[in-house]
């Protein structure tokens, strides 16, 4: 079949990376396999090495939507919170140190144990592992291609279309948030997340506009789908076929072998 179709989603950025050219379903299986690997492995060095490789790949490839510095800051703060909760709450294992040492006749307080530090780093690694591979999948996968690939595997197209909409709305909502924040800064509203007041204003004056905008978009899409009689027929006629290439399957099998070797070595 010739590739001379006119894509419905012609606004999708055109770029070529190994993950971009993979079949979306094979890519989804590979991402799921890596996520499972993160939850199985307990070797922190291997875990963080893989996360570092994924981050380097994500930031140096021409993905259409890059993660902004405020989001990195939020993820780092949230990761620190996860680590501190585990470090303070887990009292098993060898005592490493006291957060508040003994001063004269008072203390020490807040003991930090070996298991708490290990579990904190482990959970933070799993959190970052899932987040980073999700970035790669979302930013390198055409939502409509993913839906069509699922439909070719006899997944009901209503479900497949719902998944594609979820992927499609991720960058749209990101742009919407940036538009709202720019409008707030133009009006002189303090939304600097580094201050308590700025964080409160950011949540207060961003959450409700985002909810309103999202509901408005959902309404427009619902009316559009009803006007086109979406779901009337059992099957849909695809605009194009998404090929399942042997190279994609070989790459997936190779990934399985590499992760299996990393587990047993």
Description:
By secondary structure, the protein is mainly alpha-helical. It has two domains: 20-141 and 241-265, no CATH class; 156-234, no CATH class. Helix content is 67%, strand content 4%. The chain has helices at 18-21, 24-40, 44-60, 69-89, 114-140, 143-152, 157-186, 196-227, 246-264, and strands spanning 95-100, 109-113. Strands 1-2 form a two-stranded antiparallel sheet. Helix 3 (44-60) packs parallel to helix 5 (114-140).
Summarize the structure.
The chain is mostly helical and 265 residues long. Helix content is 67%, strand content 4%.
Strand order of the largest sheet: 1-2
Mean pLDDT across the residues is 77
Percent helix: 55-70%
- The number of distinct helices, counting runs of at least 4 residues, comes to 9
Strand content: under 5%
- The end-to-end distance, rounded to whole angstroms, is 45 Å
Low-confidence stretches: 1-11
Reading the helices and strands in chain order gives HHHHEEHHHHH
The shape, in one word, is flat
Structural class: mainly alpha
Question: What is the number of E strands?
Answer: 2
Question: How would you summarize the topology of this molecule?
Answer:
Blueprint: H1 18-21, H2 24-40, H3 44-60, H4 69-89, E1 95-100, E2 109-113, H5 114-140, H6 143-152, H7 157-186, H8 196-227, H9 246-264
Antiparallel strand pairs: 1-2
Helix pairs in contact: 2-5, 2-9, 3-5, 4-5, 6-7, 7-8
């Amino acid at each position: 079949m010739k590739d001379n179709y006119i894509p419905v989603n012609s606004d999708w950025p055109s770029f070529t990376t190994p993950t971009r050219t993979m079949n979306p379903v094979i890519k989804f299986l590979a991402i799921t396999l890596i996520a499972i690997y993160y939850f199985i492995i307990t070797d922190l060095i291997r875990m963080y090495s893989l996360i570092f490789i994924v981050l380097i790949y994500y930031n140096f490839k021409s993905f259409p939507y890059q993660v902004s510095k405020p989001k990195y800051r939020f993820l780092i703060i949230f990761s620190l919170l996860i680590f501190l909760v585990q470090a303070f709450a887990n009292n098993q294992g060898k005592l490493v140190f006291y957060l508040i040492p003994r001063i004269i006749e008072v203390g020490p307080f807040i003991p930090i144990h070996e298991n708490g530090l290990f579990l904190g780093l482990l959970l933070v690694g799993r959190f970052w592992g899932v987040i980073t591979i999700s970035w790669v999948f979302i930013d390198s996968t055409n939502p409509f291609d993913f839906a069509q690939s699922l439909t070719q595997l006899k997944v009901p197209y209503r479900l497949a279309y719902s998944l594609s909409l979820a992927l499609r709305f991720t960058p749209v909502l990101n742009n919407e948030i940036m538009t709202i924040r720019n409008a707030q800064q133009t009006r002189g509203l303090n939304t600097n997340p580094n201050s308590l007041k700025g964080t409160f204003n950011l949540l207060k004056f961003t959450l409700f506009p985002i909810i309103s905008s999202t509901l408005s978009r959902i309404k427009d899409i619902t009316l559009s789908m009803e006007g086109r009689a979406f779901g009337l027929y059992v099957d849909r006629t695809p605009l194009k076929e998404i090929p399942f290439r042997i190279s994609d399957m070989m790459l997936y099998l190779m990934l399985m072998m590499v992760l299996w070797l990393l587990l047993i070595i």
